[in-house]
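Re: [ENG-882] Designed sequences occasionally contain unexpected residues at chain ends

Forwarding the minimal case from QA. Structure tokens:
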């Protein structure tokens, strides 16, 4: 009789735990990131920040793109000049997926060219750098209109091409932009 009571108690405990797990599963769970799939191919627009100018992006696969910007980089360490960059981007996850928009996170690697004029204590000079860029950003990719808005931060490692006191310099560039998708 004792073993039957233990068996009934164990069965009741198992049923109670099963019922509790069903209740636990009924609670809403936060949405986790899903793989991002682009629904656009080529976008062109403006970027404000470092640099300020024209920005473009071309998706050559569902989650990989080539990104570029041509613009003016003003008052960057006392230097003004032309900035051009091209990056290869990966979009590993969409942080928010809604019927109105996707919010993909992207990371990348690329290069930049910066040709500048420099004013240092009434001594004017010019120079050029070639740099490596590592951008990280998010894009508000609207599903119902052909627009996206992006925010980006990029680590830049510059190598001076011209005869200059500095040989290598590291910094961060950041920008906010909008693109129209064709």
């Amino acid at each position: 009789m004792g073993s039957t009571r233990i068996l009934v108690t164990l069965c009741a405990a198992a049923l109670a735990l099963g019922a509790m797990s069903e209740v636990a599963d009924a609670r809403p769970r936060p949405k986790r990131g899903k793989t991002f799939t682009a629904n656009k191919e080529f976008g062109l627009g403006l970027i404000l920040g470092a640099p300020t100018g024209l920005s473009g992006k071309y998706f050559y696969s569902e989650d990989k793109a080539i990104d570029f910007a041509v613009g003016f980089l003003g008052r960057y360490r006392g230097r003004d000049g032309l900035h051009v960059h091209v990056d290869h981007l990966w979009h590993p996850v969409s942080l928010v997926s809604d019927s109105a928009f996707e919010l993909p996170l992207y990371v990348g690697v690329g290069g930049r060219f910066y040709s500048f004029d420099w004013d240092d204590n009434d001594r004017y000079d010019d120079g050029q750098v070639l740099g490596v860029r590592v951008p990280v950003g998010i894009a508000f990719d609207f599903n119902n209109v052909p627009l996206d808005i992006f925010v980006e931060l990029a680590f830049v490692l510059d190598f001076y091409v011209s005869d200059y006191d500095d040989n290598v310099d590291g910094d961060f560039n950041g920008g906010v932009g909008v693109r129209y998708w064709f």
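QA comment: On inspection the terminal residues look reasonable. The chain has one helix and eight strands. Proposing we downgrade this to a documentation issue.
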